[in-house]
Amino acid sequence: MESLSAAERKQFEAFATGIADNARALSLPRFRRPVDVTLKGDMSPVTAVDRGVESMLRERIEMAWPMHGLLGEEYGATRVDAEFVWSIDPIDGTRSFISGWPLWGTLIALLHRGRPVLGVLDMPALDERWIGHKGAGTTMNGAPCRTSACDRLAAATIYTTTPDMFTPDEWARFDRTSREAYARRFGGDCYGYGMLASGHIDAVIEANLMPYDYLAIAPVVEAAGGVMTDWEGRPLGLESGARVVAAATPALHAALIESLARS
């Protein structure tokens, strides 16, 4: 896959940060305010804020880049075989949003030929934003950030959002792996990946995800020095499955993959 030029990276970043600002302007005023909640077919909650933010993002993308593809949580996929595809999750962590918990975010990714090359992880309630470019580094609120140097499972702090996301077999694998670590913690939705990119924690292991849950996060983690793949160690893209492993270093990532593979 060809890398984007510096001019292309600058152009796409300016656009992505602009629409992230627009998304924040829509979602943040509704946070910790009364909001109607309905359940989707998979019994996950959705609000008018989720749908309104995604509708705005899709409109902005389609106006600016009419030949680009789109993947979104609420309104599906269009032209995903295009050279460039945008992936958007308007509110990652809707359960956090509706319960007044500030660890929800907006995720925006740009994929080039099926692989994520630019990711924006925006946390409106915390006023924190990570931007990662493949091959060009990650920033948090404009300052460069790096993953930790942790290279041993026994020294690692591992996060996951909730035990509820795992099947019984996946939970057995996660439970065994995380108990070999220095510490494990629960909660965070997309925020844990920002903490990983900034070097505060060392790994995130999750399952039962959709591509829009992780495509924006992969460039943020990888451009900060980390590694993020599926549980089998394969790169993430539009066709990846539901399970991801993100680690601060290649050595730690290899140890996690090896541990998770044991039945």
From TrEMBL:
InterPro entries for this protein: His_9_proposed, Inositol_monoP_metal-BS, Inositol_monoP_superfamily, Inositol_monophosphatase-like
Pathway: Amino-acid biosynthesis; L-histidine biosynthesis; L-histidine from 5-phospho-alpha-D-ribose 1-diphosphate: step 8/9
Enzyme Commission identifier(s): 3.1.3.15
CDD domains named in the record: Bacterial_IMPase_like_1 (cd01641)
Cofactor(s) this protein cannot do without: Mg(2+)
Record key words, sorted: Amino-acid biosynthesis, Histidine biosynthesis, Hydrolase, Magnesium, Metal-binding
EC class of the enzyme, as a word: hydrolase
Residues binding Mg(2+), per UniProt: E73, D89, I91, D92, D213
Alphabetical GO biological process terms: L-histidine biosynthetic process
Molecular function as annotated in GO: histidinol-phosphatase activity; metal ion binding
SUPFAM superfamilies xrefs: Carbohydrate phosphatase
Catalytically driven reaction(s): L-histidinol phosphate + H2O = L-histidinol + phosphate
Gene3D superfamilies cross-referenced by the UniProt entry: 3.40.190.80, Fructose-1,6-Bisphosphatase, subunit A, domain 1 (3.30.540.10)
Pfam family for this entry, one: Inositol_P
Family: Belongs to the inositol monophosphatase superfamily.
Protein name from the UniProt record: Histidinol-phosphatase
